[in-house]
Write a structure and sequence with these properties.
By secondary structure, this protein is of the alpha/beta class. The protein contains 24 helices and 27 strands. It binds ligand MGD (2 copies) and molybdenum atom. The site of molybdenum atom has 3 residues, from loops.
């Protein structure tokens, strides 16, 4: 029996360190590594079940397969690689390299994946992606204010008196930061959650505010205005370390406190309490992905940064506004060799369906690794149509999914239990080694091996050659320069020196003037054209005014409910466990009064419609859901009738090229209304 160290590559902030037990070539269990200073022996239930759910799952594809007359057929690697290489050369010759799209998903983002891009650059270039379906908007906002988005090391939240969890659900999505938050709370810190949905995190917090979705800018503005009104701002910081304060104050002066309270739909008295406990710092704000999902999401982040600045919480231990980290941040991107490609074209990930359909020269071949864009990008049906419009789609994955319906060639990939690699994280500064715990299942191969073989056939094998360790030494060079040697790095997880626990503690920012930039332009013009029609307020929901708005929902046919789709508890991304692999209905949480007005009740089936599509859903009556939105989870598959993105509209955020999933407005129809 052997114990081998590796780490989890699921798309999750933890990048948990794992100890795998192997008995006679078979992996018998996965356990958390107690020696990891951050993940500390913990492993989530989804990764604990990885062996059964994914690794040894009989549905896992273990051989290359090709679609012929709509049916998948097994072929050899030799044939598969030759077909792929032939298609690639053929299409380049006829249509140029830009007619190939390389789509890299979020399924596994370890260091060696940088070389995937190298392959396409050596090929002469291809179309690749810009923007993201994950974050983006927040990065853009924070870069405008701070120069760079740098988050506090999670352990710094232990120094907070107050932690505001803003648009995030760490009790489900990041169990390690959640552990720190719980510890801080045990030590006396207060925990406030700001989320329109009553999540697991919200339930476990001291206070939960349920604002009107998309309007958090007003909430942050109200808090800042209260602080300024009371004369409790950090004048020293404002005077010496910031710019644009006057313009910012002018923006605040355009609104009364009462107006701001109405806009975010939180009573002024509550906002006063919140502002005052926030002042009793140090107070940290931990922002989540919920805030990225709006057309003007960057403004929310900018207003939150400004609030932290006014209150003296920037550059302070236990303070700050933390978003996350860059999982590729410690590795050397130069090996992607962008400069080698004479041809470059970038298509937007948030609106990838439309971009493919509009592309000129057209996209002829799509090469996809570790992603499920048909199910996970907005406007699934359009993405599906776009992928189908290509002559040939190659995908590298472990399982068939919604996107594989559009694929022609499927190349089976190894998992983090079969490869050597290094793994960063978007939840902390620790880099962990991956080690081959067992031999690859079936004929599965690493992405590196696949690209190296293709490069050999295509005639540039030398430029891709090297074993994983040789490449890791190059990719990890920025880490090695910090004094950690490769042997050490491959041996155990390491907190990489350099990034401070408390960023900006010298009050020097990465902006041109080195000063914090207050937001100096603010134009909301209401996130969504439909939202004004349905401005419910939580407190006086029984008022006549609100009653007439409910009538509106029923009669006008308006798309007046905002569709929120949040992370599922039981799995990550669209990696659905077997138990959930059944056709059924997406469950939709709706407030009982809305249901009543529609003549629907708990458990009913109904049609949910947006401008992009419709889906039969199962209604779950939920008094904790706001009356201006409905909520469900993301990650379900189209083939199971559970894919929320059949409804989401494809748009791109105003800044940061993010994906405003939550701008989608929907209506509910009874089945019999057909
Ligand atoms: N179990 C599990 N864990 C995961 C994932 C998973 O699929 N499953 N996915 C991983 C990925 S890819 C990511 S990016 C992270 C995301 O991590 P989180 O950000 O924690 O995940 P979400 O569930 O998107 O949480 C966003 C929250 O924002 C709220 N929200 C929506 N609109 C607003 C608004 O206008 N204002 C405010 N204040 N809140 C709003 C939503 O109701 C939701 O509760 O999680 C990672 N972890
Ligand atoms: N409505 C709505 N949609 C959303 C979101 C939302 O909040 N609401 N969130 C968005 C966010 S935050 C994200 S990050 C995206 C995620 O979007 P995607 O990255 O497209 O989706 P995943 O389900 O994470 O895709 C993972 C795929 O990678 C495969 N995979 C896993 N490990 C490996 C590996 O080691 N090698 C290879 N080759 N393949 C592997 C899995 O089998 C799976 O098919 O979804 C976005 N979509
Ligand atoms: Mo994400």
């Amino acid at each position: 029996m052997k114990k081998i160290l590796t780490a989890c590559t699921k798309d999750c902030p933890g990048s948990c360190s794992i100890i795998a037990t192997v008995d006679d070539g078979e992996i018998t269990s996965l356990n958390g590594n107690p020696d990891h200073t951050y993940t500390q022996g913990f492993l989530c239930s989804s990764t604990s079940k990885f062996l059964k759910d994914r690794f040894y799952n009989p549905q896992r594809i273990l051989h290359p397969i090709i679609k012929k007359n709509g049916e998948w057929e097994r072929i050899s690697w030799g044939e598969a690689l030759q077909i792929a290489a032939d298609k690639i050369s053929e299409i380049i010759l006829e249509h140029g390299p830009e007619s190939i799209l390389y789509y890299q998903g979020f399924g596994a983002r370890s260091a060696l994946r940088i070389l995937n891009r190298r392959f396409f650059n050596l090929l002469g270039g291809a179309s690749t992606l810009y923007g993201t379906v994950c974050g983006g908007t927040g990065q853009a906002g924070q870069e405008m204010d701070l120069g760079e988005r740098i988050s506090h090391d999670p352990i710094d939240h232990l120094n907070s008196n107050l932690i505001i969890i803003w648009g995030r659900n760490p009790a489900v999505t990041d169990l390690h930061i959640w552990k720190i938050i719980k510890k801080a709370r045990k030590n006396g810190a207060k925990v406030v959650t700001i989320d329109p949905v009553k999540t697991r995190t919200a339930r476990a917090s001291d206070i939960h505010y349920q604002p009107k979705p998309g309007n958090d800018s007003y909430l942050a503005m109200a808090m800042a205005k209260i602080i300024l009104k009371e004369g409790l701002e950090d004048q020293e910081f404002i005077e010496n370390h910031s710019e644009n304060f006057d313009q910012y104050q002018k923006i605040l002066n355009d609104y009364t406190l009462e107006e701001l309270a109405v806009k975010c739909d939180i009573p002024l008295s509550e906002l006063e309490i919140l502002a005052n406990i926030y002042l009793n710092g140090p107070s940290s704000i931990i922002t989540g992905w919920g805030l990225h999902r709006y057309l003007k999401g960057h403004l929310i982040f900018r207003m939150i940064d400004a609030l932290a600045a006014v209150s003296g919480n920037l550059g302070v231990s236990g303070g700050g506004v933390s978003q996350g980290f860059d999982e590729f941040g410690f590795f050397d991107d130069k090996w992607a060799a962008e400069e080698l490609a004479p041809h470059h074209r970038k298509l937007p990930m948030p609106t990838i369906g439309q971009a493919i359909l509009d592309a000129e020269p057209p996209i002829k071949l799509i090469f996809l690794t570790a992603g499920n864009p048909v199910a996970m990008c907005p406007n699934s049906m359009k993405v599906k149509k776009a992928f189908k419009s290509a002559d040939f789609v190659i995908m590298v994955d472990q399982f068939l999914n919604d996107t594989s319906q559009t694929a022609d060639l499927f190349l089976p990939a190894t998992t983090f239990l079969e490869d050597q690699d290094l793994l960063g994280a978007y939840g902390h500064h620790i880099v962990s080694p991956l080690n081959p715990v067992a031999d690859p299942q079936g004929e599965c191969k690493s992405e590196l091996w696949i690209f190296q073989q293709l490069a050999n056939i295509l005639g540039f094998g030398n430029d891709m050659a090297g074993n994983s360790q040789q490449w890791l030494e190059k990719l990890a060079d920025p880490i090695l320069k910090k004094g950690i040697n490769l042997e050490n790095l491959l041996e155990k997880p390491q907190r990489i020196p350099g990034p401070p626990v408390t960023p900006y503690s010298d009050k020097q920012f990465f902006t041109e003037s080195r000063k914090f930039q207050f937001i100096n332009e603010f134009e909301m013009n209401e996130c969504n054209q439909y939202s004004e029609k349905n401005e419910f307020t939580q407190d006086n929901f029984s008022s006549k005014e609100n009653d007439s708005k409910i009538e509106n929902i029923r009669d006008s046919g308006d798309y007046s409910l905002r569709l929120l789709s949040i992370m599922p508890e039981k799995w990550v991304g669209s990696e659905i466990p077997d138990k959930e692999m059944v056709k059924g209905h997406l469950e939709l949480k709706v407030h009982p009064q809305i249901l009543e007005s529609l003549g629907l009740k708990n458990g009913d089936l109904a049609i949910l419609e947006s401008k992009s599509g419709s889906l039969e859903v199962k209604i779950s009556s939920d008094p904790d859901t706001r009356k201006d939105c409905v909520s469900t989870y993301r990650g379900g598959w189209i083939v199971h009738n559970k894919c929320v993105n059949v409804l989401t509209e494809d748009m791109i955020s105003e800044k940061g090229n993010g994906t405003p999933y939550y701008e989608t407005m929907v209506r509910i129809r009874k089945l019999s209304d057909n």
